[in-house]
């Protein structure tokens, strides 16, 4: 079962993205002009999305993919255009409504379904690939691993996700953020130690048979996020390429 800390934080994220930040997020994920700070975040997210898509097969025809925390749907659309059957889910109804509005009608042989809900819901079925771009960055590393294990139970191929790597700058930003009244700040991004995360993944029974694959840090101005690939396979199987710091 998801932990109480996960459920509490999930509620905060739903409120923030569905109400407080819906308009700002809509602008950030569009072509609308934004501030220089947000422009760096947009550029970082664009590069991260391209990186994760680059770790997926070029031809996804016949594959089922879960976009966990899809936001306004940019990654989901690209995966569907490659032929995937995409289930795109997010906790924020406002973002899902915007994603549906922006979704193109002609996706070729691919298909795309947007849903409001929880990425761990077993009713979503099974998948070949799962992508969670910047959707678990608000959770403690212990909760992130629990989420991964729940998703892994229904995934046959790979899980690609991002987390906020613990750096001196992010640690300071996280600490300073705690001084603001709760109503005046977004749900905090939780910096995670890559070493600690790897240890938790290795110790998680629900991730037995899964192995670390590629990793890539993307930094653009005010955007810093680390991509990590998990691959299902027998012990000692190739993990898909070298890791990058």
TrEMBL record:
> Keyword Repeat on this protein?
no
Q: Where is the Magnesium-protoporphyrin IX methyltransferase C-terminal domain?
A: 132-232
**What Enzyme Commission number does this protein have?**
2.1.1.11
Query: What does the record give under GO molecular function?
Result: magnesium protoporphyrin IX methyltransferase activity
Q: Which GO terms describe its biological process?
A: chlorophyll biosynthetic process; methylation
The UniProt keyword set, sorted, is: Methyltransferase, Plasmid, S-adenosyl-L-methionine, Transferase
Which InterPro entries does the record associate with it?
A: Mg_prot_MeTrfase (IPR010251), Mg_prot_MeTrfase_C (IPR010940), SAM-dependent_MTases_sf (IPR029063)
Q: Sorted alphabetically, which NCBIfam families does this protein's record hold?
A: BchM-ChlM
Q: Which PANTHER family match?
A: METHYLTRANSFERASE (PTHR43464), UBIQUINONE BIOSYNTHESIS O-METHYLTRANSFERASE, MITOCHONDRIAL (PTHR43464:SF19)
The name this protein carries in UniProt is: Magnesium protoporphyrin IX methyltransferase
